[in-house]
Amino acid sequence: MPLGIFSRLALMVFVIGTTVSAAAREPNRVAPKDLRPRETRVHPVFATVGFETGIVTLVSIVGNPGSSEPPSIDWGDSTDPTLAVVADCSSRECSVEIVGTHVYQETGVYTIEIQFPSEETETTTATVSTASDFVILSIGDSVASGEGNPVVTLLKGGPAWDDSGSCHRSSLAGPALAARQVMDENENVTFVHQACSGDDIASVIRQFKDARAKLPRIDILLITAGANEIAGGFGNLICECIEVPVCVTAALENGDDLTLRSTCARDEEFKNRIAADVAGLADKYAELALTIQCQKLDDNTGEVIDDPDCADQGLPIPSVVIITEYFDPTHDRRGNFPGPLTVTSCSGYLLNTEEWEFMFDNVVIPLNEQVASAAALHGWVLVDGIADEFLKHGYCASAGLGPGLLGKSWVVKLPQSFRMQGDQNGTAHPNRKGQEVYRDRIFEAIVESNPPVTTVSGIAAGLRYAFGSPTPQSVELRLTASNLVRESGVGRIYFAVDEPACDADPSALNRCSLYVGPFTIDTPGLHTVTFFSENASGHGMERAKTVEVFIDK
Known about the structure:
There is one protein chain. The chain is an alpha+beta fold. About 25% of the residues lie in helices and about 20% in strands. The protein is built from 15 helices and 25 strands. α4 crosses α15, α5 packs parallel to α9 and α9 packs parallel to α12. The longest helix is centred in the middle third of the chain and has 26 residues. The radius of gyration is 27 Å and the shape is globular. About 45% of the residues are buried. About 5% of the residues have low confidence.
């Protein structure tokens, strides 16, 4: 699996000679249990066609089952069976859960068969349907996927993720947690988790295209992307800054050209390279923005045109696009760059203050400035304040490496990554507390920005009016707005008759009228009625819609 910008921060912290404890290198696996159930409960599965089910519980086993190998799962759709993962039960009423994840390619009801080594079987069902009335889609890199936070850790029989590939998608990621909060309070909400560890913006664009081709609508698009564009990915950056044995070995095996540097902070050439990569983000965000809007650059003229492949297929354009800034792993619990004593206690070896400061000044700050600029330029909602919240919660915000010393740090450390997922890839990503910061900020942004949906109805001579059709009668119109995210609510409703300048833009609202009740059109001719509404905060405004009223008398 390709490693992203924060995937190898441990290699920066654990420099040559660092010795990871045997316990960190060799996770303490729980002894296998006999999975022959003493008392079992089966759980139905509900899934969206074309997307991972995510980790779902199929069977709960009450009591102490003993020891055995994991069961296999036949998902009922003619695909090859997969091995289940055995997880500690999330409730107090059972001992273990049999879990798995799968992708169904067709809608329908499927019979799932769980085959235990004892040759006993349990069955449950999967109901696979299309997306609901409100869809939240998350795309991005390892921060958005939830790297470092497996759904089932090694100590619980895993690790296991919400995807069957190498993207390391986790329901403990900030976007997934925020979507779950929306789903818990509102009906008919679907969350699609497409973010993938290690992906750059070109790959994120492919994530979006793949999801959009399968979805009838996208209401909220969540993005965390851009970090993997810098110096060929942060893993590369770290390898070039410090002579790390694992990098040298990999370079020799792959035949890569690896430049080793004694320090990056004093290497002006390297600083310039990073600066150029950061500056190049603007064009890559612009390409992403065009893709989202079903547009592209004309190959001959370079002008922005509608993408016929997208438009011809009627693919959806998101109602709201939300992009998050990146967290700051570089400060200690006092909000300072870690000094020698702090670094030694949090990493075991010295990474000097100058290098932490280099990381902050040359990566964290300019990267977040590019994210903010892209949001302003393309009309995206910016989720900021995340780096500030991490100010006293970076990698070295708590001393020591043990689980009892996590303390103030909201960042996964190298031994924790080995202990939870069996590799170093989770290192330097937000831990559960850090992802909860993302959750809270993203949820706030969804509530603040999600617009209502306004509908219009007309009555002519006591009968429902068919918009656009001629009528000799006057037409009374009523506007109604509702919000599928109840926390967002409904604020003011705007409308205009034969006023093309009225639009859902703060600068054009003075050309609109405020709707306070039914209004009537009785002047002969063809009239265009524009209407839209805003949410309770006033920050989420619906795109303007129009209908025609034809008074023929």
